[in-house]
Amino acid sequence: MSDASTSSTQGPRRRLAAELQALLPQTQCRQCGHAGCAPYAEALAEGSARPDACAPGGPALSRRLAEIVGLREAVSPAGFLAPVPPPLRARIRPEDCIGCTKCIDACPTDAILGAARQLHGVLTDDCTGCGLCLPPCPVDCIDLETIAVAAWPVADSPAARAIASGTPIAACTDCGKCVVACPSGLDPRALAARLRELDTDAARGLGLARCTECRACDDACPVDIPLSAHFVHGKALVGALATLAADAAHAVERQRARQRRLDRAADEPVVQLVQPPAGRDEAHAGIAAALARVRARGPRQDQAQD
Predict the structure, then answer these.
(1) How far apart are CA 113 and CA 119, in angstroms?
(2) Domain co-membership, 162 together with 112
(3) Does pLDDT of 175 surpass 90?
(4) DSSP letter assigned to residue 248
(5) Stretch 130-146: mean pLDDT
(6) Structural domain span for residue 29
(7) DSSP 76
């Protein structure tokens, strides 16, 4: 293959990888089987990785990645009801921490503070829940805990339970009664169908934010599809995706700051500490030698003038 053809292939592939990476959560957790979010995005662009390998992104991210790389995957009922895993944060059990600092070195966002033989702590706002601090801990004193977030799209929410136990969207008869009943001028059947596919961009375009959750569409539906529950669930999904996008941007800032710190540390001269004397006699000999050097130099210039 010529250099020109190679360049023409690599250019679009790089652009595709950048587009994919911009959607990833930037936790660098490596659960996808790659060394970080950037290598995973590159593998996706090359076609050597699957779009459903990102555990923190969940089914919602998987659908978006699949669409970009030209794949279409049906969203399972379970994936729709729990489209985004709840965020995780590391917590160090203080009674078990021995201050080894190994977790500090492993954290990609410098979210763990501490010193040798001192209790370590986690900066919760900077922790991405990647779990990279767990394997190096020799005493297994770090836990990943789920963070409770209001209105997160989870399977045990009232809206998700109503959807799971109600008539599925596939039973819609296209009678149009929900459209007539909607006081906001929305098309509830189309809106619910797009949400069922986790297509939040299309749902926003159809006016999801204008839904008042009045349940007029539920009352009008002849087959009892819980349409309003889909909209409540969909709004929670939109909010969760916005939260994850903000968290990803913050994680990138922290990772860049950490790299700058490491670069500065590599450029700084290494300070060699003086080894303490082995015993009392050696210490006394060192003191005597220092005094002898002072006497040998004689008085300082300013003392000589006095």
Answers:
(1) 9
(2) no
(3) yes
(4) H
(5) 97
(6) 11-73
(7) P
